[in-house]
Structures are given as structure tokens and as C-alpha cells.
Amino acid sequence: MADIKQSEIARLAGVSQATVSRVLNNDPQVNEEMRRRVLAVVEMLGYVPDARAQSLRAQRTRLLGLVIHRAPHALAYDPFFSALMASIIEEAGRHGYHLCVDAARTPRSQRAIYEELLRTRRVDGLILVESETRDQRIVRLTEQGFPFVLLGRYDPPDAICSVDNDNVGAGFMATEFLIRKGHRRIAYIGGASGLTVTRDRLQGYRHALEQHGIAYDPHYVVFTESSLLGGQRAMEDLLQLPQPPTAVVAMDDLIAVGAMRTAQGHGIRIPDEMAFIGFNDTPLCEMVEPTLTSVAIDIPTLARVATERLIALIEGRPVEPRRLIVPAQLRERESTG
Amino acid sequence: MADIKQSEIARLAGVSQATVSRVLNNDPQVNEEMRRRVLAVVEMLGYVPDARAQSLRAQRTRLLGLVIHRAPHALAYDPFFSALMASIIEEAGRHGYHLCVDAARTPRSQRAIYEELLRTRRVDGLILVESETRDQRIVRLTEQGFPFVLLGRYDPPDAICSVDNDNVGAGFMATEFLIRKGHRRIAYIGGASGLTVTRDRLQGYRHALEQHGIAYDPHYVVFTESSLLGGQRAMEDLLQLPQPPTAVVAMDDLIAVGAMRTAQGHGIRIPDEMAFIGFNDTPLCEMVEPTLTSVAIDIPTLARVATERLIALIEGRPVEPRRLIVPAQLRERESTG
DNA sequence: TTGTAAGCGTTATCAC
DNA sequence: GTGATAACGCTTACAA
Predict the structure, then answer these.
(1) In sequence order, what DSSP letters do the residues of B168-225 get, joined into one string?
(2) Taking CA atoms, what residue in B is nearest to A281?
(3) Strand C contacts (CB < 7 A) among A residues 43-102?
(4) Which nucleotides of C are covered by protein (CB under 7 A)?
(5) Sequence-ordered strand ranges (E) for B3-123
(6) CATH class of A167-296+331-336
(7) Which residues contact A11 (CB under 8 A, 6 or more apart)?
(8) Is there a smaller number of Cβ atoms within 10 Å at the N or the C end of chain B?
(9) Which residue has the higher pLDDT, A136 or A294?
């Protein structure tokens, strides 16, 4: 039972193996009668073509590659990554593609993995995440002409095909929202200061202040690690200031919640005395008291668009413009009044 | 540059293509001199064999399959799945395998996906999760002799190869822990009632009650969806009882937190008036107030063992015993006093 | 010890 | 319109 192949179908239907292939590929030239006969046998045996043979013959696997750059436990609780992966899978499936996920913990193994995926032709294209300023992967893939899409920002914009959530815009949106609520002393708590996300959102924050005639005060900007504890520590620092802020833009929900906890611990009422806004719109936002306003990255759209574009690249369709921006969305809740 | 193949290496090294293949497969019969010559060219061109051709020839793809049974947004915040996937990827990589992840939202598409993966031979084996009591996938895979490992329980134990976190034991452990704390009216909030996990933990719960001479009262057992809201709804029901429980065993941390919230909303003090215990030991446990006691499933071990066994099956090595149990661990926190 | 050649299951290009 | 036949890139008998 295991190994039905086209020649087997052909034998039972009394036609040649080539005809079976034609029928299965909807060749219009094939006679109705033969088509029926072949399809009947195909149906009966539940024949499906062997993906391995198709891959070799067609020179493509219909597999998209995604490489995770974290240790397993770090990935486990990263909703961004899970959501991304799930949406990629879904969109890929719609186009008849599958997702192959690999992991690379160290920078060295990263290079090795990308090199392997590239050379073995195990996948037809790659989705890149967490780009660095001088990304070797991008250089390599570009010079090899291997299809890939970057999730993130890259300069110059037309050099490669990329899809980005608008981090600058998101930082701007969050800050302006607070300004419109009447706040003037607004703090920004960033994550690791080297990350592009941190810097981009900070840029949006500064831009919003500027546009509304508020002087930028570096005392209101702190960087910390992306965790509850990080948020708590950052807030402690901000509360030491002679003029503490009346509103806080935090790099992610975890930091925001940590900061909010600390403020509450100091007897500060939220949102009356201090407003908070986070990023990513994680379920955490609904779990805390008061619920947390958050700027949502539209992960499903991000993933969908990136996947669509990658498949277009693979199949040789034009992709224009090269860089696409997916706007963020603000989800207003109690923490901003 | 793109397409280096063995025949190309052979030409440059002045040997036959078969010799190149032998060198790459460490055939001991090949002469040292030739080996050097071939490897030099291989090195120089950075040649790596084409995975597609190897797949067809060897009749195996070195791909493991995992099918997710949820909508993307549901997966996004499911740490169990992410942790599992990450650990599978890591272990697979150690053995030279990759992970192919697919998704099936509806039961119908589920069958279709499994059938496709099975028939197209796109993957060498499957890791099954979330088994149901009469799992059609298992029947089908078994009759086809397709390699797979079930993460979960299955009877009879020797029928198929499975790795289970000890759900019965975990349910028992959680319940007994509460009993030892002095509780007698203990509720159990399960997930979807069809799931094996739900039933297994319930069995452990009943077993613990029985062993400590506490009568089983079905009013204390409710089923709900695995979410904050599900937990909240279930708790509302439990609070309607003439004699509400003094302790709650919830199927997962999300449900537990939802239930805890609702209890708090009704002015119930935790853990003084009501104790809570969840499952999975997610970061959520540390984020809530009071922190949540939880029974941890050892996901990395689970994933590692399952992956190892699947690969053993694929490569025709014996796997004994067929069923393996990975014990759980209780992480005590504030919610149980 | 090495080269020649068959074949893995497809698709596509030929003749007929 | 249909049936032989040649690839796709690799592994492995078998021949030399």
C-alpha cells in the first residue's frame, strides 16, 4: 500500500505514466475519457504525488525557511515570535507552501545554518528577522540571488525586499497620544539601547515632542532590560527625579507593567497621577489593573505580507515597492485615562 | 555560481562523479590522494549536496513534521507550544533533522493535512500532540506504518510509541498538595472536555480525593475554554454553588488566573479564603498578585525524548519501552498559602 | 580502487 | 492526443 506511484496508476488505468502526469497537472490537451479513467484510479488509491520527486524535478521544495535566533526557553515566552510563526504558516499554507523552522543560538551557528539552507536548497526562500546594522546574512543572500524578505528596516530602502512595522511611527503615535491627553513631562523607557526597535521608537518619541513644542529632556529617557524587573528598576530611577514624569512610554508591555507596579507601590494613582502606555498589545494588557494601553504591531498583517512577497519573489513575480511599512495601532485602555 | 553539483567537482578534480559522492560519504575504500583532491575542490567551491536530490534518492527528507491545531492568535500566547517547538527544533538539529510546522484550524483541514504529509512523504515522521480519545490520525498512521510519536497518553500503552508528561500524576500531585494544606472542598476546572489532558488530570484529581477519603462531587468539576475568560466564567459558576470550594485546581495557568481574578472580584482573599493552583508554570505565575502555584511540565525533556524517539523510529532503531513518562514538578508560590 | 550505469518519482520534450 | 524518453542530482551495485 505504501508506495503508489504514477506508473502504478498508469498500469491500472491502462494508459502511459506520462498521461497520468498530464492529468494530474491539468494538461488541457488530454482526452476526457482518459482523464476520467485516470482520476478514478487516482481517487481509488488515494494517490498523491511524492513531494521529494517533485522537489528534485521542479528544483523547488515549496518550503519557506525561518531561523530563530534564541535559546528555546527565550522563545517560549515570546509572543511576538509565536504569533509571527503562526501567521506565516497560515499564509504559506494558503499558497501551498510549508514552513521549515530552524534555530541558531550562537552567531557562529547562525552563519552555518543560513549557509546550509542556502546551499542545500532545502528551502525556496527565507524570512529574516532581527536584522543587525551590518547584516552578513543579507550580504550573502543578496550576492547569491537567493529569495528572502527581511522583517525589519534596512537602508537603502530599495536594496532588498523588506516589510517593517513602523516603529518610528509607533513611538510617535504613543507619545502624541499622551501629549493630546495633556501630558508634558513624558518619560521613555527603552529596551537594550543597541536594538533598532529601541532607537526607532525613541526617534518617534522625540519627533512627537518636537512637533508639539516640548523640549527633549534626556533625564526622561532610560534604558533597561525587557522584563518586569527592568521596568521596575527604570521606574525607580524616574521617580528619583526632582520633577517625575506624569506619563510613561515603555518599550514593551512587560516593562510598562513593571513600571506601573513600582509607581503603584509608591502610592501613585493610575491613570490620574501618571499614565502608562506599552507596546505589543500582549494579553498581559488585559490582565493588569488598571488595564494597559498599548501600541499593537499588526503581526498577522506583517507576517502575511512578508510571506506573500517571499512567495512572489520565489515564483519570479515582481515585488514593488521593495520596502513596505505596516502601520501600528493604538489600543486604548484604562492606564491612559 | 549558483549550481555546483558533484559532476562539476568531479570535472575539476579530474575524477568521476561517483568518486566525489564516495568521498563525501566517507567511503573508506577511496584512495587518500583522490580524497584530498576532491575535498580541495569541494572546499574551494563550498559545495554542499542538494537536499532535494538526496531526499529523492534516499527516500527521506530529514524533515520532522508538527501540526498545530489552533488559530494563529491562539498559538501566539501559548507558551507550551512555543517551548515545545523550540526544544524539538533544537534536538532535531542535533541529529541533522529539521522541523516542518503546519497548521490546521478545523478538524476537516486537520485530516487533510495529515493525509497530505503522510502521502506526499514530505516529512519522515510526525510528532502528534493533543490526542483525542479515538484519534483518527493514530489509526491512520499506524495502519500506514508511518513513523510517529505521540505526546500524550494512549491505550494500550504498547500499541504506539508515546511520550507523556504524567498528567494523571500531575493532577494527583496538585490535588493532594491542596488536601495536605487542609482543603476538603476542592474544585477542578478543566479545558475542553474531549481532550486527554483534561481527562487525565481529572483522573488524578479524583484519585487524590479518593485516597484521602474525600467524596467526589461532580458539582465541583467544570469544563471551560483555555483562556482568561474561560477561567472567569468557570469561577462564576463555582461561586454560585451553595458551598463554594475553598481551593481550585485549574487546567492551566491562564484558566487559573482568570478564576483567581473573578474570585478577587467577589472580594475573596487569596490564599486565605481560597487557594489556587495552575499548570505549566508559565511566566504568568510570577506576574500575578498573589503569585500562582503551578505544576510544571518538563517541556524540554518531553520534547527532547519525543524527538529522539521519532528519529530512532525513522532510522529503524528499536524503541523500548513504547510508552515513556516524564514526571511533573510542583512550583509552590503564594496562591496556595 | 575507480569508473560506468541504473534508478529514486516526477515533469517536459519529443516523436508518432 | 498519447506514449516513449530524457533529465533533475544523488547513491550504490556492478564492472573493470
Answers:
(1) HHHHHHHHHHHHHTT--SEEEEES-TTBHHHHHHHHHHHHHHHHTTPPP-GGGEEE--
(2) B77
(3) 47, 49-50, 52-54, 56-58
(4) 1-5, 7-13
(5) 63-68, 98-103
(6) alpha beta
(7) none
(8) N
(9) A294
In chain A, % of residues over pLDDT 70: 99
Strand B293-296 and strand B323-326: the pairing is unpaired
Question: Which residues in 47-66 of chain A line strand D, with CB less than 7 A from it?
Answer: 53, 56-57, 59
Picking from A71, A81, A100, the nearest residue to B99 by CB comes out as A100
Residue B246: strand, helix, or coil = coil
* Count of CB atoms situated within 10 Å of the CB of B30: 16
Cα–Cα distance between B130 and B123 in angstroms, integer? 19
Residue A281 and residue A299 in contact, taking contact as beta carbons nearer than 8 Å: no
Interchain CB contacts (distance < 8 Å): A and B: 163
3-state secondary structure of B249: strand
DSSP state of A49: -
Q: Which of A76, A103, A122 minimises the CB distance to B51? A: A122
Alpha carbons B188 and B237: distance in angstroms, whole number: 12
| C-alpha dist (Å) from residue B98 to A93, A202, B130 | 18, 38, 21
Q: If we measure between CA atoms, which residue out of A299, A263, A129 comes closest to residue A187?
A: A263
What is the identity of the amino acid at B311?
I
Output the CA–CA distances (angstroms, integers) from residue A97 to A87, A315, B177, in the order listed: 13, 12, 48
Helices (H), chain A: 6-13, 17-24, 32-45, 51-58, 72-76, 79-94, 107-120, 136-144, 167-180, 196-211, 228-240, 253-265, 284-287, 299-314
With beta carbons less than 8 A apart as the criterion, state whether A278 and A253 touch: yes
pLDDT tens digits for A162-173? 999 899 999 999
Nucleic strand C under 7 Å from the C-beta of A25:
yes
A250: nearest Cα among A240, A262, A258, A239: A258
Predicted confidence (pLDDT) per residue in B233-244, tens digit: 999 999 999 999
- Nearest protein residue to the C1' atom of D5, measured from CA: A18
- Rounded to whole angstroms, how far apart are CA atoms B66 and B69? 10
CATH number of the domain located at residue range(s) B2-57 in this protein: 1.10.260.40
Starting at the edge strand found earlier in the chain, the sheet holding A247-250 runs: A221-223, A186-190, A247-250, A275-279, A293-296, A329-331
Give the CATH fold of the A63-165+300-329 domain.
Rossmann fold (3.40.50)
d(CA A30, CA A14): 15
Q: Do domains B2-57 and B63-165+300-329 have the same CATH topology?
A: no
Instruction: Give Cβ neighbours of residue B218 (< 8 Å, ≥ 6 apart).
Output: none
Does residue A283 have a cis peptide bond before it, meaning omega lies within 30 degrees of 0?
A: no
Q: How far apart are CA B268 and CA B253, in angstroms?
A: 19
If DSSP codes are grouped into helix, strand and coil, which group holds residue A185?
coil
- B241 C-beta less than 7 Å away from strand D: no
Nearest to B48 among A82, A120, A300 (CB): A120
Residues 6+ apart with CB under 8 A from A138: A128, A131, A148, A150, A154, A160
pTM for the model stands at 0.85
Domain ranges, ordered by start, for chain A: 2-57, 63-165+300-329, 167-296+331-336
Q: What is the 3-state secondary structure (H, E, C) of B5-28?
A: CHHHHHHHHCCCHHHHHHHHCCCC
Asked if residues A38 and A23 have their Cβ atoms less than 8 Å apart, the reply is yes
